[in-house]
């Protein structure tokens, strides 16, 4: 669905994205991980039209979308969320959802005078759809709550719900788990999986929680210093030496080695032999 070729985004003399190339397959939940400053959010911003690339190319379903504005990409079904949720705090949760679809009849003063019947029909349809979205996300009990009063995790669910109010093809989720408790994060994860499997949504997810990434994402793409470092399954990525050094850190690498050595020493201390069970080598007669 999305293909990025030799993408570069420079700020002054600094290359936040440095000749990055990757693909996001239709129907996938692709993870994008890497240390802080790796260029992940900048890459999202270039793909989503927030920043124009310095060089390189982005295509969606074979169409060149390089440099298109966010509202143009919105109409093509490419949406993104942000690390900090962007809601209308004084409006209710339901009203936040109803605000999303573009080109509503009631948006112009003329229509508000002379197209009242049509506006009522549209609002009734939007109200029904918003309630369906709230049911899907299991937050119907919050429909009349002002969005500004929601917790961080509830706001992330609301942002996900807003993508459901239009015909989204691909959604870029930027640190969906930031500031979210484990229970709500599981709810968000369940919603992402259901949208992917039941409604055909394609996702690309930036996240630091490797348990969350491992549960949802295949493949996982790793960035470091603006470049694509590795790609593969979550399990493969966790075993990649270059990824461990760049992202997971030498501390984890050394800890894994230390744990392995401790396990070997423990086995040797009671004479256990590989493959024979804990009782092997104890010297006890059967």
From TrEMBL:
The keyword Cell inner membrane does not apply. One of its GO terms (cellular component) is plasma membrane. Residues 2-250 form the ABC transporter domain. Residues 259-286 are annotated as: Disordered. Keywords: ATP-binding, Nucleotide-binding, Transport. One of its GO terms (molecular function) is ATP hydrolysis activity. The keyword Nucleotide-binding applies. This is ATP-binding cassette domain-containing protein. It comes from Pseudooceanicola albus.
